[in-house]
Amino acid sequence: MKNKRLLASLLALAALIVILLAYQAYDQSKQKNSNANTFKLGVLQYVSHEALDEIYRGVKDGLKKEGYSGKKVKIEFLNAEGDQSKVQTMSQTLVNHNNDLLIGIATPSAQGLASATKSIPVVMGAVTDPVGAKLVKNLKKPDGNVTGVSDKTPIAAQAKLMKTLTPNVKTVGVLYSSSEDNSKSQVEEFKQKAKEKGLKVSEYAVPSTNEISTTMNVLLEKSDAVWLPLDNTIASAFPTVVSAAKKAKKPIYPSVDTMVDQGGLASVVVNQYELGLATGKMAAKIHKGQKVTDTPVYIFDKGKPIINKKVAKTLDINIPAEVLKSSAK
Ligand code: TRP
């Protein structure tokens, strides 16, 4: 009798232990699953300037729109501060931390990520010339682990606006960074489109932000206006460009609204926030299972004219009514 009772309690104890162990295992696997459901995203921004910050804001909202907010997404965000060696080490860090997908905001960071991994999907955030930057071979059918969003500035429309607003401009100085692949193709295109409009173009390439001030002095002596591509180095030191042009009383035609706001005269621009939004949404879709090879590069190439009226006034520039009507500001 006694033995029987002991046996029963032992059996009950054993059953309890089995139940407890099973529950523990269940709980662990539940936790693992919820971790597996968290989208681990690595973002590398090349440098801080308003346009790229605006793109990153759009990226986060794009993810949210696709259901990735709160615990559903864990973003590891790094900023290379315009330093090429940081681009390399930070790209490697984001790969080593086993992120599911990587976003590179601006060309140099997308290039850094693409060379750090051939397996983790890389989504380009606002890369002007993905083919020229050797990030994809075919925009419609990417064949590696890289796809994304391209900001193809409407350069022909910019050259046209320049002719309309400042018909007396004969020579245009183009300032850009010699190390950015994104700028090279834009400068080539601008040269061609400006030539068609009868403008003479001179190029001024700088190796870093340190040379901007002295280069601007030479440029302004020899040119009637300044044109700037979507160049990260120039964007990150834009106040230097503005103060030089202001002194010389010559107009700056940048390629982005944030730089028009900060003292440029006018441009035809693509919305930076929307670029980010599209980048975030694309990243989300790929995380949900869409293949990179089935995700063509999304190209923004239709811009809106925008004019800084305050700058126009200080330069005594008349804005024709039809330009004013169609412009965003
Ligand atoms: N398109 C740029 C690149 O390929 C990045 C960029 C986006 C940018 N918006 C900008 C650069 C505005 C300067 C200003 O790197």
Describe it:
There is one protein chain. Helices cover 49% and strands 18% of the residues. The chain has 329 residues and is an alpha/beta fold. The chain has two domains: 38-152 and 271-296, Response regulator (Rossmann fold); 155-269 and 304-326, Rossmann fold (3-Layer(aba) Sandwich). Strands 2-1-3-4-5-11 form a six-stranded parallel beta sheet, with helices on both faces. A four-stranded parallel beta sheet has the order 7-6-8-9, with helices on both faces. Helix 2 (50-65) packs across helix 11 (272-287), helix 3 (84-96) crosses helix 4 (107-116) and helix 7 (212-222) runs parallel beside helix 9 (238-248). The radius of gyration is 26 Å and the shape is elongated. The N and C termini lie far apart (95 Å). The mean pLDDT is 94. Bound molecules: tryptophan. The site of tryptophan has 14 residues, from helix 8. Tryptophan (TRP) binds at residues 51, 106-107, 126-128, 151, 182, 230-232, 235, 256, 272. It holds the Pfam family ABC_sub_bind. This is ABC transporter substrate binding protein.
Give a topology summary.
Elements: H1 2-37, E1 39-45, H2 50-65, E2 73-79, H3 84-96, E3 101-105, H4 107-116, E4 122-125, E5 146-151, H5 155-165, E6 171-177, H6 181-196, E7 200-206, H7 212-222, E8 225-227, H8 232-236, H9 238-248, E9 252-253, H10 257-261, E10 266-269, H11 272-287, E11 298-300, E12 304-307, H12 309-314, H13 321-326
Parallel strand pairs: 1-2, 1-3, 3-4, 4-5, 5-11, 6-7, 6-8, 8-9
Antiparallel strand pairs: 10-12
The structure holds tryptophan.
